[in-house]
């Protein structure tokens, strides 16, 4: 009897569990309805016109679409939708990196122990930005590099690599963990940082960081209107199309034949390896410098130069000013301005040149054309006097354009 009662108790227990589960399901059902009702009321309240029908209709269409997508035959649609979603997400992330000045994030640097990159803060225009700046010619500034690594704030003497533009110094290991430099870029830094060529840190290399938020927003809007995709390479036709659009927007006209020739010459200057395409970073730096050249005054650009850059400019001017009267010719000034873009070959890094990026552009350079060479010869005979202050102001944009480590020429003298 005891055994029979135990079985009976077990049956009753199972029945009670079934009732509880059923009640739990019913409770969930009942709970969905008020939630939906609350959402409907919220929509009606927002619309202000009591139009709940539109909400119900949208809900019905969403449910039907969901049922339709769940059918086996709609699998290609789901895959296409997923691909579009991924592409949209990637584009949004790229626009975000462009806005924040972070550039391309190397895929091979996603590590658990990677250091947190610093937050970039774009500059703001000051009230006195356009006021004249007094930079004495005879007084060298000779800035001293920082003693500790910018990243870990530790001093380790010879293991620190200096920036040629600012006074920051870095450990190669810290830069690797930061994720801003690829393996190839790190190797280049080790080979050039302690030579006369020098190396620009990630702050100085990225001249896009010189733009204010307003200037960057304007540039991004232009990119979007021209359907320029961030972090993608451009071929010559795309650069021409982009230039046609910008000229149409700014001046309400098409490019002239001479201007098209200039665009193609700039493409060649941005593609020194003759790959038939220009890298995204080189295109971005060129456009950023164009924005600075168009919308900033010479005095404003002069204020951006660092003490190291001013000292190099002094060395260039003094090497030209043989009679030491503080005046050179316009032809000599123009040659000096083009000299900032000459990348010293690794074979000549041990030479005794005291400044980086100095030397004439050779005739075989991609930035050199027949019309440009004839123009340069004519400029050699331009004997108009140029003072030190005028030379520094006119050269500021070209000095800034020499900051990137890339071998591309990011801005050129106009034809």
Task: Give a nutshell description of this structure.
By secondary structure, the protein is an all-alpha fold.
Question: Helix coverage percent of residues?
Answer: 40-55%
**Helix and strand element order:** HHHEEHHHHHHHHHEHHEH
Strand content: under 5%
N/C terminus separation: 110 Å
Structural class: mainly alpha
The whole-number mean of residue pLDDT values reads 74
Strand order of the largest sheet: 1-2
Number of strands: 4
Task: Tag the structure with descriptive keywords.
mainly alpha; two-stranded antiparallel ribbon; 415 residues; 4 strands
Please provide a written account of the structure.
The chain is globular, with a radius of gyration of 32 Å. Helices cover 54% and strands 3% of the residues. The protein is an all-alpha fold. The N and C termini lie far apart (110 Å). The strands form 2 sheets. The protein has a two-stranded antiparallel ribbon with strand order 1-2. The model is unreliable at 1-5, 17-52, 68-73, 103-114 and 343-368 (pLDDT under 50). Strand 1 (160-162) and strand 2 form a beta hairpin.
